[in-house]
Design goal:
single chain, alpha/beta, Nucleotidyltransferase, domain 5, 2 domains, 15 helices, binds FE(8)-S(7) cluster, binds iron/sulfur cluster
């Protein structure tokens, strides 16, 4: 390893306006999803206690904790133009999609199996594949069973909001602290273009009457939950030409009614999914359009930027899906659950978090000499715990941070179709798609990287950096940025 001098401007290249995949921010179950970058120092202690182990509600927690969904709620009382719950593909990751629907008993058994094998599990969410509240009988039966056996799991649900006001008392009584409402509009005339019909009080409605009823129920439900101190996250699906320009107003309105977070997700629209939008050519937003809308909402309700738009049967850390390991026919007949492993993991996390916080406290001093300039985007290969602890070739996604003189901020992630290293060898064809996915990024931090990918990244103007292996992400980025400003960086 040696020292080399490179021009700072060369390191912080301007982001390309034509770069295809940009910040893959936010997401969440079309009827589920959320996360805030706020930490222990920024939040009321009572709220921090509720969010500190929730991987969706706390960006910090998503480095340490996992969620699982059980697909026990197949029925829905509305139709969204972006939804087709019949579509079932194990490789497809989007809300509303599941591989197997479960009874509450099966769902509770699956939770037991996952809790035994995944000590990171901290949240059980019910996010469909229909509506968790319209299908309340199934949702409640599942939560009741799990609450008896796993008192350390947080319960979380996701809904379109139409049935919400009818269930607020039960939600509070059952200690469900986290509820997501998908709100795509606060103007029924816009709603007409998103919802063809709703089914309410045994009657089917369409047109602006349907959208108006849905809107009123969503607002009422949000106000009722906020008044009872339940943390509410709002998911909005961004649909270009339909509600994109309207989402800043949605952000303002939900903030005024007490929403904790706002998660603006890109419409997933593919003719192969058989949705109305997919079949009719409605496109999703480009990453740049999505980011512009999120940026326009800054200053309003806090935005979630680490959502992965999970399936309704997702299992694992955000960004990974271990659902196939826990299919019903793979579960053992008797599940011997040992809670001490989960307790030990939480002790370990508490220790790691303390060390992480101490390390981050040094960042202002590290950046003190940096001058105001164009922010840099740094992609990071990480397996969790806030560290640069993954080999480049093993990454299925990269977390993306923005750094400038003011600090280091998580801003999104870049998903890959597959990881570069397959069976111990790098795949040339994969390398091309990884480099494409990283377009616009200035540097990639990883625990280790081979010569081939190093050369390919460098040729694309992206600096490969492995000298901070196993260090904390933010402190490594701050150090790198400060040294780059001095035009001194270490290279392998
Ligand atoms: Fe599930 Fe949603 Fe609860 Fe999280 S997901 S019900 S709040 S436990 Fe999270 Fe997945 Fe995004 Fe949802 S990353 S889709 S925000
Ligand atoms: Fe699909 Fe119903 Fe969810 Fe809309 S509310 S995305 S129709 S499951």
């Amino acid at each position: 390893m040696g020292l080399s001098f490179i021009p700072f401007d060369a390191l912080l290249q301007p982001m390309r306006t034509d770069a295809p995949p940009q910040l893959e921010t936010t997401g969440g179950c079309a009827s589920s999803s959320c996360g805030s970058s706020a930490g222990a120092d920024d939040l009321d202690p009572e709220i921090w206690e509720k969010v500190k182990d929730h991987p969706c509600y706390s960006e910090e927690a998503h480095h340490y904790f996992a969620r699982m969904h059980v697909a026990v709620a197949p029925a829905c009382n509305i139709q969204c133009n972006y939804c087709n719950r019949k579509y079932d593909c194990a490789n497809e990751s989007r809300p509303g999609v599941v591989s197997e629907r479960l009874t509450p008993d099966q769902g509770a058994r699956k939770v037991l199996a996952v809790a035994k094998s995944v000590p990171q599990l901290s949240v059980l969410g019910i996010a469909g594949p229909g509506d968790a509240l319209y299908d309340w009988r199934h949702t409640k039966a599942t939560f009741d069973q799990v609450a008896k056996s796993h008192t350390d799991l947080k319960l979380c649900l996701s809904t379109n909001g139409l049935s919400l006001p009818d269930h607020v008392d039960e939600i509070v009584d059952m200690n469900i602290d986290h509820v997501t409402i998908t709100i795509n509009m606060v103007d029924p005339e816009i709603g007409v273009r998103i919802y063809p019909w709703i089914f309410y009080r045994n009657k089917r409605y369409s047109g602006s009457e349907a959208a108006r009823i849905l809107h009123e129920r969503q607002m009422l439900g949000l106000e009722m939950l906020s008044a009872r101190k339940v943390l509410v996250k709002i998911n909005s699906v961004m649909i270009p030409g339909v509600n994109d320009a309207h989402l800043t107003q949605v952000n303002r309105e939900v903030k005024a009614r007490g929403a904790f977070l706002h998660n603006i997700m890109p419409l997933i629209s593919d003719p192969a999914h058989g949705t109305f939008y997919g079949l009719n050519g409605q496109r999703g937003p480009t990453p740049q359009e999505l980011k512009a809308t999120q940026d326009a909402c800054e200053g309003g309700a806090k935005l979630m930027r680490h959502c992965r738009q999970c399936r309704a049967d997702a299992v694992g850390m955000l960004g990974e899906d271990r659902g196939q390991e826990f299919k019903l026919d793979l579960l053992p007949d008797a599940i011997d659950f040992d809670p001490t492993l989960r307790d030990a993991y939480r002790d370990h996390v508490a220790e790691q978090r303390g060390a992480h916080q101490n390390a981050k406290a040094n960042i202002p001093a590290v950046l003190a000499s940096a001058t105001a300039g164009k922010p840099a985007l740094i992609a990071v290969a990480t397996k969790g715990e806030g560290r640069i602890n993954q080999h480049f070739g093993h990454a299925r996604e990269f977390q993306v941070y923005e750094v400038d003189h003011a600090g280091v901020r998580f801003v999104g992630h870049r998903k890959l179709d597959d990881n570069y290293c397959q069976g111990g060898f790098g795949e040339e064809i994969m390398l091309t798609s990884v480099v494409t996915a990283l377009a616009g990024v200035d540097a990639v931090f990883c625990a280790k990287i081979g010569h081939c990918p190093k050369d390919a990244l460098a040729a694309a103007g992206i600096k490969p950096v492995d000298e901070y292996a196993y260090e904390f992400i933010e402190t490594a980025i701050a150090d790198f940025y400060a040294r780059a400003q001095e035009n001194v960086v270490t290279t392998a």
